[in-house]
Design brief:
α1 crosses α3. The chain is globular and about 40 Å long. The protein is α+β, with helices and mostly antiparallel strands. 49% of the residues lie in helices and 19% in strands.
């Protein structure tokens, strides 16, 4: 499961999966949940400040739908 999330995050961030470290995975807390949600805490190792800036920009422009698609793709590829 960790590899699937690391691969998905790497995909949307535009970095190799080995640069992503999953810190934790937990259920999202909400009083009224309309959908199942999880929170994935992660770190991405960047080799330069410019790369770090690029990753931040890429992640800021990523939608929930992008992440969902990346997770589905990573899960399918792992089977």
């Amino acid at each position: 499961m960790l590899l699937i999330f690391a691969t998905a995050i790497a995909s949307v961030a535009g970095v190799p999966p080995e640069r992503v470290t999953i810190i934790s995975i937990s259920a999202a807390s909400s009083r009224r949940r309309l959908a199942d949600e999880i929170v994935v805490a992660y770190e991405i190792a960047a080799t330069t400040e410019a790369e770090a800036s690029s990753v931040v920009q890429q992640l800021e422009s990523t939608t929930a739908e992008d992440v969902t698609a990346a997770v589905a793709e990573a899960a399918a590829a792992s089977n």
